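Box 3.1 A note on notation
Throughout this textbook, protein chains are presented in two layers. The first layer is the amino acid sequence; the second is a token string describing backbone geometry. Keep the layers aligned when reading.
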Amino acid sequence: MIDAVPLVSTEWLAARLGTANLKIADASWYLPQAGRDAKREYEADHIPGAVFFDIDALSDHTTDLPHMLPRGTAFASGVKKLGVGDADLVVFYDGAGIYSSPRALWMMRAMGHARAAVLDGGLPKWRREGRPTESGVVTIATVGRRHFTAMPEHSLIRDFSAMHANLATRSEQIVDARSPTRFRGEEPEPRRGVRPGHMPNSVNIHYAEVLNADGTMRSANDLKELFAKRGVELERPVVTSCGSGVTAAILSLALELAGAKKIALYDGSWAEWGGRADAPVETGA
């Protein structure tokens, strides 16, 4: 059985293509303003054997909040249709390098499946190295049906009530992955009805700061220095947040690589907090 680690290299994956119980999933997702169609790009070109992990399709459709984690039964049903089972190690990648794939990693872990990882540098690095790709759609008929058991890991998930309670206890540090201008409230939020600003007592570390220029993750030592410089104590619990719970997962991955042990993600993130009148908001640095 292949050991599970949170981040794997393109060399590691290339050497294991076709290995039993190794599944590859394209988890690309982009903001509307990016003008990119993730599913169409997957169909045109993907790593051999990869299925398409649609973050929006595998979300909770009973809420207006974007791509919230669904109930376990719904998630298990969707994942089984991708041919992913309990014994599988799933390697997620995306078309930006490291952007939405950590969200897919977090979703799997939040559903109790620890055997999952992110491909460092994603599809762009894979292509730059001249590694094989294929077109078309990998379907259930070719990947085979598996049994997947969802067992939600609540320690990895924070909701509004937990975040609101933390205002008083301050037992968990809050790290916001949005851009500095959005964090300070200097630009309007992209979602209607959402106020600009940030949660009280939160720290801003833009997700791009944990990445290298080529889209790979910075070294563990670099990440430790970055978090220390921003006052994030790796020994204490940390909750990550962002606009809608996607780039927050990049920080969660970076925190894990830096050595943090107690990391959760606020699923509703700013889309929820900034849209609620009962949630206090601060602006400025």
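The two ends are 47 Å apart (CA to CA). Strands lie at 7-8, 22-26, 51-52, 89-93, 116-119, 157-158, 173-176, 202-204, 238-241, 263-266.
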